[in-house]
Structures
1.
Amino acid sequence: MGLRERKKVQTRNALIDAALELFLTRGYEATTIDQIAARVDVSPRTFFRYFSSKEDVALSAPADSQDIFLAALAARPETESPYTALSQAMRTMVATLRGKEPEDAARFMKARQLVEETPALLAGQMRLLMENEQRLVAEVARRQGTDSGDLLPQFVVSVFTGLGMICYHSGTQGLDVMAERLDDVLTLADRSLRPGWDLATADTSPSATD
Amino acid sequence: MGLRERKKVQTRNALIDAALELFLTRGYEATTIDQIAARVDVSPRTFFRYFSSKEDVALSAPADSQDIFLAALAARPETESPYTALSQAMRTMVATLRGKEPEDAARFMKARQLVEETPALLAGQMRLLMENEQRLVAEVARRQGTDSGDLLPQFVVSVFTGLGMICYHSGTQGLDVMAERLDDVLTLADRSLRPGWDLATADTSPSATD
DNA sequence: TAATTTATGTCACCTCATGACAGATGACAA
DNA sequence: TTGTCATCTGTCATGAGGTGACATAAATTA
């Protein structure tokens, strides 16, 4: 890895840290790009060469965690049912986060806290989730052997996304708490959902029951 | 109702219609406030006296539909279980929308289509949803007789929000399709969820099973 | 060292959004 | 009808977010 690339990573991390620091102390809206850039000693223009927007820098850590989740899901064995694969991937994500450098973990926690207290960022994070949602639906449909346009995969992903949101919401208090909460939520889900609910059955068309 | 108020309503609707029209033809980002204001023959400054932002005007119709839902939920009898109340309120909302003036319905549909094809607005709509989420959780907790911080009400609302998203997603093709989709989704939910899943039981604390 | 690539800074520009103030217009009472 | 008052509106000025163009400085490669 050359000097050039190392410097880029360094600048990028410095921008993220400076931004999170300012956002958390002065507030997200009250902080300007100029202030962030000034703290890292780069021009404001350079900021936008690293991040496409103010929101982008704030959500870079959450976006990373999403990527981790996607990767974990892809690594789950084909034999697992959709919901099992999703929830195991979630556990893997939390574990991966906990295994990271303290520096990275701190960034993640700061971003979590910031997002929680900033409605605009909460919305942005939801957008990130929704952008992945279609990929998730496609993956679930593949595992179920059904079509992506079918209702069931959408339903499964939708339920799971909801679970993820609840965990994420509790992540403010640290990754340990988040891991516990994940267990609780999954337990609750097991108790609420019928066995095999996430698997396609012979009669997929709804019309007979009512 | 005086002339002044009538004019205000008129201007407001004109701004919404002009905005939706331009957004749908030229795209959301490509359309400027100046263009919207010019089409209605008001100053750009006046636009911001009716709407707090560009997003606000685009999401005014969705925001209205949310209000309808909240009102419908409040009107549900106390005896209904949380999930039943939520889903019936949803049905009421769709029915209310279908019963509106064609002009209003058209606005709603245009907004739906616009939101669907504009990621930034998708995020905004999610924000609207999340703003209500806490109220929903509180309402469900009240009906369950549990605490608002408890996991179950959050879970119920989360699942339901997911269902709502699926319906909403299909609302692009018209309110009739959306009503059908709602039925399908609720049927699927009934098939997937255990009876009484949305009611608090004696043993709420998870620890025994695993 | 010379040539090439690439990151950065500077400058200009546009759009979104807000505050301040003056003028126009509807509301209302005499 | 007229005068007063409240309110809506337009104009102006300002600041922040975001982008394109171009020159410069630095790192890579030969």
Note: The two ends of chain A are 64 Å apart (CA to CA).
2.
Amino acid sequence: MLTINDASKRTNLPVKTIRYYDEVGLVMATGRTPAGYRLYDDRSCQKLGFVQRARQFNFSIEECRELLSLYEDHGRPSRDVKKITLSKLALLQRQLDDLTTLTLELQTLANQCTGDDRPDCPILNNFSAGPLASEA
Amino acid sequence: MLTINDASKRTNLPVKTIRYYDEVGLVMATGRTPAGYRLYDDRSCQKLGFVQRARQFNFSIEECRELLSLYEDHGRPSRDVKKITLSKLALLQRQLDDLTTLTLELQTLANQCTGDDRPDCPILNNFSAGPLASEA
DNA sequence: GTTGACCCTCCTGTTACTGGAGGCTTTATA
DNA sequence: TATAAAGCCTCCAGTAACAGGAGGGTCAAC
């Protein structure tokens, strides 16, 4: 059993955030010490990690709650689970496209800069034809 | 010149959000009609699109402001631009890794569900050895 | 010439935290 | 063993980035 600080170190989530997730019932502490300190086990840390990634890609707390419940609710028809999960996956695919576009935009910016002191980096002109029309 | 509504349609950003970006000076309207209506040109729409993607991946408004200024400030040594841009790219690489992990987690969940009514989808057990140890 | 779709500003509300005060508990140190 | 530092608690206030809505002007169309 880990203290909240240890769980924080393991997941890279701030202590405050972990406390918040417990408070709103998203990822509850596994237990408490007699003094009232929160305790977390491996499984809670897994959930925290999962939530962290999902939150990073703009799944709301409520959506995270739903996804976690999919993982846990064995009484739920797997048909439902599959349907919901696939729709989330479609979202992630779009995210992946956008992430790729953004990365390209920044990479182009970095490449245009020779790295010397010449003060000229007018990248917006370059992709002003649109994010995906960068093959000129 | 586009109205705020047209800019909204072109960028898929809510009108409210575009108004907000103007208000905080992130992406200002190109001009105003005599009646005070905001006007946007192609370049503003480009910026809005860029900000949209950057925001989606958790760059703050202030970071977006900085990135946009890199694009625009021709008086800035390209050395600086390159340095800052590369550090943002490193962040994006981490995002990409996390996005991949999350996608894998959800895909595993979807695959485990045969899609019939059998109510058993205990995916957390499967990756409880860690997000990257899913080759069991 | 008025109806309906847009636009404006201003103000309040929401989500998901973040920081800090005030006050126990546990651990390291003298 | 005393005490100081570090860690934990609750509670409350603040922040970022919007979103909703009131109240009211504007513009194209019938």
Note: Chain A is about 60% helix and 5% strand.
3.
Amino acid sequence: MTQSRSRTLAELIRESFDELTRAERQLANLILENYPVSGMGSITAIAKASGVSSPTVARMARKLGFPGFPAMQAALKDELKATISDPIVKHDQLAEGAPDTHILNQFADAVLENMRQSLKRIDPALFDNVVALLSDSGRAVHVTGGRITHTIARYFFTHMQVIRSGLNLIDSGSNTWPHYVLNMNAGDILVVFDIRRYEHNLIRLAEMASGRGVTIVLFTDQWGSPVAKHAQHTFNLRIEVPSAWDSSVTTLFMVEALLAAIQTNTWDETRGRMKTLEQLFDKTKLFRKFS
Amino acid sequence: MTQSRSRTLAELIRESFDELTRAERQLANLILENYPVSGMGSITAIAKASGVSSPTVARMARKLGFPGFPAMQAALKDELKATISDPIVKHDQLAEGAPDTHILNQFADAVLENMRQSLKRIDPALFDNVVALLSDSGRAVHVTGGRITHTIARYFFTHMQVIRSGLNLIDSGSNTWPHYVLNMNAGDILVVFDIRRYEHNLIRLAEMASGRGVTIVLFTDQWGSPVAKHAQHTFNLRIEVPSAWDSSVTTLFMVEALLAAIQTNTWDETRGRMKTLEQLFDKTKLFRKFS
DNA sequence: CTTATTGTGTATAATATTTTTCATTGGCGC
DNA sequence: GCGCCAATGAAAAATATTATACACAATAAG
């Protein structure tokens, strides 16, 4: 991974193809043939594959202007990196008028990258499985989180309550949480949010729940909470930002996406519940008519 | 270049992520981060890049079922070969393996667009002003939100409590909120979260607070809550997603960015508070030492 | 709190890779 | 045909990479 060259190796080879000797052309053809993968092996492998000797490979690398074969391969890897990496986050300044160094832009960069990386490593099957699980109205759903993540847990709880019945929010902070375990039955689901600074209480809770045959869905960070040992479904999300704290944005995103999917899935039941809720809101005059 | 495996290395890593140790996870993250290019270097290079030792890399290769590191890398190269030569594979998909129409990708698109649009509209000066305002320890800060946004308000409150003193969380849902107004003095700040389905209570609360000379900071949607009439600083954020509900992701992002900025701004005071908090946590043994 | 277990990095040995050296081959002009 | 010179590969030397051994640290268990 050295300096980035203006020309690709392929261009370089084509340009100097005239100056290449017989054996070198043979080699050049191999490299271009399945570009750039063919150039990924060791010098010995490449030499053997193209039917030339390893010194020939090294000599060509020199001829093309590299200090040696490893440098040429490094250039090839850099190229590949540039090709593979998708341009989703390649945004120009987000908050207009603010310099790149403004914390708003720095933060935005970090959060977008977190989302991109998190999405990349989510298995869609995992997502679909969890959606199906949480859509099953036969299973009670218990939700809990740590000191910070409890707000996310509550967010999930509040929305899920609209979607379906059988929801319980467990306050892991208090000493009363063992009581909640009593209400858990085999087949129930425990949704745990546990992000860095993994809390003892949550691990114990997961252990106990697991012992009672409860299926555990875990939202944790890229390093993984110890709760994962007991969880059947684990979401590993990126949470790092330039701040003294971790970011919950990706976690919230995942929760919202799940909610949207579950809601779609259980629309028949949900529709009725939402309608009823609306009527209740009307009666309590909680909201403005419109605005 | 060995046999082609049924599962990709990425899948293999994700599958056995639970069984991986701390250092191995660190390494796994690096490999997945810029997959598969990050795994192309030498074992030494990979070890250095992920901050672990080379034996750890070799050990993980074994753990994943390969005879050694070179075999794992060979598998990776094979994968790359297969991927590159298949022009159908799209690299810009967010959740790999999920079609464009999968709700996860649709949701991600919407959320990312929301963030871009919201950031474009934010005046950095507004941001900076609010940071300065909330950094002023002479002013008490009152925080409140609606039915859904209350969790975001609580999130803000929890973190701000670490940063500074003089924080109050107002439960707008109960009937007791007028009591809170009694505690507000001229120069205080009221942070209001009010997203679509603007609630009566919040408007009244803002009116009253405004009457007492309280400065109001409002987080609302692109259409604007009526609270804006009384607010000195208003953040208009995009919140629409393909779901029955609005998204709070952008709002949470804004809150976190603010917290990071304020925390940086008041570091002298905050540092002491965080240290004290750590010691309290130690005493209560709330967290695991590390993991 | 102490002891076992597991995880981790440093140092080192084993192995593979890359480069250099140098003898051989083959083309080309005379 | 003969001699010159670039091209090439075999083999060895230099270098880098990978695997192992072992000691220390962290964690879990008693």
Note: The beta strands of chain B are 141-145, 167-169, 189-194, 215-221, 233-237.
